[in-house]
Amino acid sequence: MKKYIICILATLAIGMGYLLSHSEILMLAEYTNPVAMSPETFSDLMQQPMGLLSWAGCWIVQLFHIPALGALTMSALWAAITALLIKCWQLDKYGAALAMLPSVALLWSIGCLGYWMHYSNLTGYYASHTLAVLVAAIMLCVSRKSLVAAILSPWLLYPAMGFWAVALGVAAAALLAKNSGIRALIPAASAILSPMAWHTLCYARYMPLAHAWTAGLPTLLINDVSGSQMLIPLYVCAICLAAVAFIRELRPRPWLQPSIAMAMLMLALGGSSHSSQFYQEIRMQKAAVEGNWGLILESGDNNAELTETMKVFYEMAMAQTQTLGSHGFIIHHSYADNPESRAIKVNAMQMAAPIIHYYYGRYNISTRWCVEVGVKYGFGTGLLRMLAMSALANGETAAAMKYREIIRRQMFFGNWEIPSPSHITADFHTGIQDRLETDHDCDEYLKYIATLPANIHTKTAAMQAMYYAMQDRNMGIFRAMAYNDSLMDRPLQRHYQEACLMMLDSIPQGLVEPHVEQSFSQFKEITQQLQATQNKDLIKPIHQKFGNTYWWYAMFEKQ
Amino acid sequence: MTRPISAILAALMLASCGSVEIPGQYTTENCQPPIFPDYGGATIPCNISPLNFMLSDTSITEVSARLKNGSGMEITAGGKGREVQYKPNEWRRMLEASKGGCLTLELYAAGPNHQWKRYPDSPIYVADSKIDPYISYRLIEPAYSIYEDMCLAQRCLETHSESVIHSSKITYGQCVNCHSYQNYNPERMLFHKRVSDAGTVIRIDGHESTVDLKRPNTISAGVYPSWHPRQKLVAFSTDKTHQMFHTQNLNKVEVYDTESDLILYDVDSDQVSVITSTPDILEVFPTWSPCGSFLYYCSARLMPGTFKDGDNIDNHTLIKYDILRLGFDTLSRTFARNADTIYSASAKGKSATLPRLSPDGSKLIFAEGGYGCFHIWHHDSQIRILDLKTGAIDSLETVNSPEYADSYPSFSSNGEWIMLASRRCDGQFSRIYISYYDGKKAHKPFLLPQESAWHNVMRLKSYNRPEFMTGPVR
Predict the structure, then answer these.
(1) Contact A331, A314 (CB under 8 A)
(2) d(CA B10, CA A549)
(3) Where does residue A271 rank: exposed (0-12), middle (13-18), buried (19+ CB within 10 A)?
(4) N or C: which terminus of chain B has fewer CB atoms within 10 Å of its end residue's CB?
(5) Distance from CA of A218 to the nearest CA of B (A)
(6) Across the interface, do B426 and A395 touch by the CB < 8 Å criterion?
(7) ipTM above 0.85, yes or no
(8) What is the rounded CA–CA span in Å between residue A139 and residue B191?
(9) Do A436 and B312 touch (CB under 8 A)?
(10) Comparing C-alpha atoms, which of A415, A365, A39 is closest to residue B457?
């Protein structure tokens, strides 16, 4: 085995390298993976094929809480698969590279998902297919020496492995083709027939017959957009399990086999690349649940392009740290289109909605979002934490304790305590009057923001409304806030002062400081000069002196 | 598939329990034991599954329980951890020997320091009466508009066994609801499938058919069902149902009808006839009297100003239902012209829904709240019993929870047990509670027992529309 150590170590290194450099994927997997560590969820999972491995996969996904541990676990499993397949296919030192193909495909199956991770029920997915291929690799080793094992494996393992039992039968047939002749078709026949038999025996109530051969593969469907292309890596993995046996028989040139592996790796890594904003959103989402506003502000400050979701998290962080008025217009972002989420016709805000509604004091709506998302995609630790926080904030203590108990039974959450809402969040909540909303209202978060002035009873809400009015240059809303004496600090934060000078005809006493007025006079003078001369060379010095003000935003950015 | 595995796990668990020692030395606690579910003081059927429970004090690491009856018989349970799980055979023998009597629960607990304490003893009364051996319910998350994985399930009350009658997993995007039985008979049942592969599934004596109850003269397909007790007739409501969501109010959801009528479906001829269809009056929740000569239902008059902007409700508290009764001639299969008001909840500023008759026809049990028809979301919803002979209302104070919604009440086939859905466990997820009714008063209800008390914590689904059955659906 020593001569094969390079391939085994290479698998380990590739897995660790990819997962650690994209640890956000592990974070998101752990955040969204449905909590399954109870007899009840075990029973639910066992209603369908591959339920056992899905449950085991859920257990492993808990390890992703510590990214290094999760990466090491997955990479070790992939390396073990490589090692087993080298032995099974009796590959030489060049051919050993082919044994890496299934592991690379499994890495690809995780990396390729992108936004589908937010919007799919992937119970145990991130580890269950790896476990299934590991079992398949072990059984191939056994099947190489035993036709009986090859024939029985699809029958015996179908409940645990589903689709992979079918793949195993076909791979075993390919493995035995040379030595067993026509008898090698029997494992393939087992692979075809066993799903039908098991469906009749056990699964007819839970699954249509047409799904029996692909049981265990996730259904990726959002609205009317199918994500079946995301399953290509898993099909490639299954094909490799059979195909390598044939490739081996063709005795390819030594250089060809590592080349195939390299090509597969390039394909996998290429298919697993996503925009930097995708990863930033995940970090921000996790930070928001944990109330880590510093991380969100830093992320927002360091990214010139923000997606809609990033923008909302960034602004929410400023609201929570009461820096909307001091920080909100210092850094000017452009807003990134998000073709990945647009392609699946999902409003990227939906990912953030439970969190946003909570931090803006709309606990009922946050709870509703959490439950709806959980029903659709499963209740992961992220959603359960938001449910616990919303319930506690809403005074629903018993419900909060129930969610807390469920979370505490997950690894690494044994001592988790529900954080109380911040005084900012509580302040937002105080200002909200009860009204009945339709389904449609709940989805339109931005409409809610636009209607905030109807709910303004506190300074916190007033500052939020003024900030959005400043963004949209909505003088009507801004004036309504600024002239409400009871809601204004004296003096206001810097950006609010700047906006007062631009938007108010007469400024109430004490809102604006003299040095800001002076600065505004200078700004007016130079911009009037610009207007008069149309000398574009003036823009740079204006930006240098006033680029971090609301005036610059209103006059140059907003246009 | 799950049953053999659960049985193996249960057997392993029980085997690992061994015999439980009752501590000889302990300190005495004055406060009531913090047990969940709280079975102390409840009256239970003589054929119910073991009332396993746990101590909710997380500092406890060992527990020991002894259950004794009046004639000296005793069983023990407990061990490491906080759970108490009785051996099913021992439990059954104990109940058999204790019919009509009282069990005493002695409870001991210890922390990491192994210092035992004994709580005050709790009585558990064993009725001489059996309960129907099966119930069924829909398992569904307490969501609002999304559904994905729901099922109709049945549970044997004599064991902890639960199995699936119909799962929506079989067809993507399907909703299943409103299961209903003729006279508690599992051989005659129906349920609706919505959205995908839609229709009403009717199973009669081994034969199954799927029908579309929407007809040109009805506002929708049939919704809330009620089988005639003797004939192959089913009364349904037809409804245009909407919902809106509170931004602050903890009632969270308002589900309401803008229109609703009653229809009668003849199973043999597949004919639908309209029972009532009155403009500006909402008629819903039909239920037959045991003799089949009366149809009870709920009715609310729509007041001006209830809706705005089309179907968006403006003043949801204006909708208040009363309970009416319409005579039915079983021979000619015709209804009387006029209905009688049996209970005027609206006159008291309340709304009554989900009426059900006792098997002897003398009592009417229903849910009552401040307004509206979907009381499981209303914290003030409680169940009541109306004595149809005297008109007296039993407010069932021992049964109702003061803070959370109690709804969907029904009587067992012998009329001695009341079942209801309640959110009292945690305010979010409805659970099933059962109360003994001796004809005069209802006794302290108990939570549907589970093999592990953790089940009630870990399950993230509600038990919806619980129904008694005299046997399992096959």
Answers:
(1) no
(2) 68
(3) middle
(4) C
(5) 13
(6) no
(7) yes
(8) 45
(9) yes
(10) A39
Say how far apart CA A122 and CA B174 lie, in whole Å: 20
Lookup: tokens for A4: 């094969």
Instruction: Measure the CA–CA gap between A380 and A26, rounded to whole angstroms.
Output: 13
DSSP A431: T
Closest CA to B81 of B64, B99, B104, B102: B64
Please provide the size of chain A in residues: 559
> Cβ of B74: how many Cβ atoms within 10 Å?
15
Phi-psi region of B206 (alpha: psi -120 to 50; beta: other; left: phi over 0): left
Contact A437 B313 (CB under 8 A): no
- Written as tens digits, the pLDDT of chain B (474 aa) is 445 555 555 555 544 445 688 999 999 999 999 999 999 999 999 999 999 999 999 899 999 999 999 999 999 999 999 999 999 999 999 999 999 999 999 999 999 999 999 999 999 999 999 999 999 999 988 876 766 678 899 999 999 999 989 887 776 667 888 899 999 999 999 999 887 778 999 999 999 999 999 999 899 999 999 999 999 999 999 999 988 888 888 888 889 999 999 999 999 999 999 999 988 899 999 999 999 999 999 999 988 777 776 677 777 888 999 999 999 999 999 999 999 999 999 999 999 999 999 999 999 999 999 999 988 889 999 999 999 999 999 999 999 999 999 999 999 999 999 999 999 999 999 999 999 999 899 999 999 999 999 999 999 999 999 999 999 999
Handedness of CA A90, A94, A95, A98 (dihedral sign): positive
CA atoms of B116 and A233, how far apart (whole Å): 58
Cα torsion through A4, A5, A8, A13, rounded to 10: -140
Cβ distance A372 to B2 less than 8 Å, yes or no, reads no
What are the tokens at B310? 């089309």
Name the phi and psi angles at A546, rounded to 5: -125, 10
B255 touches chain A (CB under 8 A): no
Q: How far apart are CA A500 and CA A504, in angstroms?
A: 5
Which H/E stretch holds residue A130? helix A125-145
Contacts of A396 in chain B (CB under 8 A): 250, 426-428
Could you list the beta-strand ranges (E) of A446-508: none
Distances (CA, A) of A309 to A94, A121, A282, A349, A353: 47, 21, 10, 5, 9
Largest CA-CA distance found in chain A, in angstroms, rounded: 96
Average pLDDT, chain A: 89
Mutate to test the interface with B, among A48, A201, A368, A392 (most CBs of B within 10 A): A368
Contact call for residues B69 and B97 (beta carbons, < 8 A) = yes
Question: Positive or negative CA dihedral for B44, B46, B47, B49?
Answer: positive
Query: For residues B102 and B31, is the Cβ–Cβ distance under 8 A?
Result: no
Radius of gyration over every alpha carbon of chain A, rounded to an integer in angstroms: 29
Q: Which two tokens stand for residue A466?
A: 């003024």
DSSP secondary structure letter of residue A230: G
Cβ neighbours for B319, distance < 8 A, ≥ 6 positions apart: B256, B282, B300, B302, B303, B306, B351, B371, B372, B373
* Distance between CA atoms of residues A129 and A54, nearest Å: 8
Residue with tokens 């916190």: A460
* Cβ–Cβ under 8 Å, residues B146 and A375: yes
- Among positive and negative, which fits the CA dihedral B135, B138, B141, B142? negative
Residues of B in contact with A364 (CB under 8 A): 245-250, 252
pLDDT band at A439 (very low <50, low <70, confident <90, very high): low
B56 touches chain A (CB under 8 A): no
List of chain B residues whose C-beta atoms are within 8 Å of the C-beta of residue A401 = 426
| E strands in B141-206 | 151-156, 162-167, 175-182, 185-194, 199-204
Contact B252 A47 (CB under 8 A): no
Is A47–B147 a contact, with Cβ atoms under 8 angstroms apart?
Answer: no
